[in-house]
Design a protein that fits this description.
By secondary structure, the protein is mostly helical. About 70% of the residues lie in helices and about 0% in strands. α3 runs antiparallel to α9, α8 packs antiparallel against α13 and α13 crosses α15. The N terminus and C terminus are likely disordered.
Length: about 550
């Protein structure tokens, strides 16, 4: 009897040794750790926390837009500096350096003392420091205002990273609309009156005070993840670079809009509507669209960004040189609203990725440096076009932005939000959990009755070891291994979305990356790989993984 069981026992022992060898090489943690980490954190969603987040984000956005919008006016009055373009560029450059500093000093800033220091910087930089801009030493106030604005937005961003995608979309839509309404109301105050600056300072103060009332243990836990660990958890550097390039590209278009506004202001001789009013109207339009879109069943904002961004931008830029007066203001509102919608989509995707992959919020937020850097490049690009073609600066700049959006931004969106893979959304019979030669159990029904804590493939089973070896060999991240488990059980994209409370684009992108790493193109290819008779398909030159006898 023992002789009959010997070969199978040796096979099981070989499988176990292979898994242990992978764990020893750092490819995967221990089996019990793998089961524990397969849990996506999600903060308890209640009305109070959602309302605090909405108000805090709205006040922070209003304060930052007001500060950046009024900075040049304060400097002009006090120091006689004629050049809104110069002041805005200096502010964006300082904000860029502050974002880089967040990543460089991520470790000390993640500690409780570092978070308190960021709160102090947010208060000082957005409440008293703007007063420095109205003095002869205004150059000292610009980096202080930039640092305070970055710190304030980051503190609220870190809380937003712990909220599910659906609720966060509604919160962001409400915050953007409320901030836009406040900006539009302040535009009706007489120019130069202190009430405008007072409202901005009070909004900053209220936003800082609201931070004291937010308790978020999940945010604190995510902040303990180091930048190096966050980078390692993502592993897929191609996807990481695409996200960074998307930030930069959106920033280029946003900066180009700012540069175009400078050109329009010079040509209109003061006949245009106040820029604060136009910015507020654009924010209200963008927030309203996001709110309606996230409530519409089956509406895919990422697909809208991928397929129709170039057409929507081209429509506005082609009309801009042809209209005048009120029409110019309306077209400009349309263009800024489109760019803000794109920026919000990137913001939502970044926050969702932090929660889903359990990354450091500092690591993800510092990627906004690409957005700010792109804004500087876009503004300088429009300025350069104006110098090269002084007679037709507006027409040439609009043509350059349309060309850029068609060639660069649309292609980035198509790569970042890939098309459906064959069979990716159609569940098929789950892979067998039995070793070769043993009877396969019936496929697990893909019902939605089991909740987010349903049991995964049991540790120690043949299929469990097979999936772990595949994940280690192909370099799947922990969260990709989690999704691989669900795909092996016949789950579809909708199930992955519901289980992790993520968007369809995020779910499909992770499935896409898994397929790409495994070099497969359909669910059937995945099952063929999992149910192979041996491990020879996973062997690398000079080193086999779990060879079967």
């Amino acid at each position: 009897m023992s002789g009959d069981n010997g070969p199978e026992a040796a096979k099981a022992s070989g499988d176990a040794k292979g898994v242990r060898s992978l764990e020893g090489r750092g490819g995967l943690p221990a089996a019990e750790d793998r089961i524990e980490m397969r849990h996506v954190p999600l903060r308890a969603e209640d009305a109070r926390s959602a309302l605090l987040l909405l108000l805090g984000l709205a006040l922070a956005l209003f304060a930052v837009c007001s500060l950046f919008g009024s900075a040049a006016a304060r400097v002009d009055v006090a120091a006689g500096v004629d050049g809104r373009f110069l002041v805005d560029t200096l502010l964006m450059a300082c904000a860029f350096l502050c974002l880089v500093g967040l990543r460089v000093f991520a470790r000390p800033l993640s500690a409780p003392r570092g978070l308190r220091a960021l709160a102090v910087v947010a208060f000082v930089g957005t409440v008293p420091c703007p007063l420095i801009l109205a003095t002869p030493v205004w150059p000292l106030g610009i980096p202080c205002v930039a640092a305070g604005s970055v710190a304030l937005v980051f503190l609220w961003w870190s809380h937003a990273c712990t909220v599910g995608r659906t609720l966060l979309s509604l919160v962001v839509a409400g915050a953007v609309s409320l901030a836009g309404a406040l900006l539009a109301l302040t535009s009706f105050l007489p120019a130069g009156v202190p009430q405008t600056d007072y409202l901005s300072d009070m909004a900053s103060l209220a936003s800082c005070l609201l931070l004291l009332g937010v308790q978020n243990d999940l945010r604190d836990r995510l902040l303990q993840v180091s930048v190096a660990e966050s980078r390692d958890r993502r592993r897929n550097r191609m996807y990481s670079r695409l996200g960074e390039l998307n930030y930069f590209s959106v920033g280029v278009i946003l900066g180009a809009d700012g540069g175009l506004w400078v050109l329009l202001s010079r040509q209109a001789d003061g006949s245009l509507l106040p820029p604060v009013l136009l910015m507020g109207a654009a924010l209200v339009a963008a927030g309203t669209f996001l709110g309606v879109a996230c409530r519409a069943r089956g509406f895919d904002m990422e697909r809208l960004s991928k397929d129709y961004l170039c057409a929507t931008l081209a429509l506005g830029y082609l009309l801009l040189p042809l209209v005048g007066g009120l029409g110019t203001g309306l077209v400009y509102v349309y263009l800024v609203a489109v760019v803000f919608v794109q920026a919000c989509i990137v913001f939502l995707a970044g926050a969702e990725l932090v929660r889903f992959e359990e990354l450091s919020p500092l690591y993800s937020f510092s990627e906004a440096a690409y957005l700010v850097g792109g804004s500087v490049v876009g503004a300088l690009g429009v300025f350069a076009v104006g110098l090269l073609v002084p007679g037709q600066a507006l027409v040439a700049s609009c043509a350059a932005v349309v060309l850029y959006a068609a060639v660069v931004q649309v292609q980035l969106n198509r790569v970042s939000f890939p098309e459906d893979w064959s069979g990716a959304d159609d569940p098929a019979p789950a892979a067998s959990a039995a070793a070769p030669g043993e009877p396969a159990p019936a496929p697990e029904p893909a019902s939605d009755d089991d909740g987010p804590d349903d049991k995964l493939i049991p540790a120690g089973s043949y299929l469990r070891r097979r999936l772990d070896d595949i994940g280690a060999h192909y370099g799947l991240s922990p969260r990709q291994c989690e999704i691989l488990d669900l795909l092996a059980r016949g789950r579809d994209t909708q199930y992955i979305m519901d289980r992790f409370t993520i968007s369809r684009a995020t779910a499909k992108t992770h499935v896409y990356n898994i397929y790409r790493k495994l070099d497969i193109h359909s669910r059937q290819d995945l099952y063929d790989l999992i149910e192979g008779d041996d491990f020879t398909s996973l062997e690398t030159p000079g080193q086999g993984i779990n060879p079967r006898v």
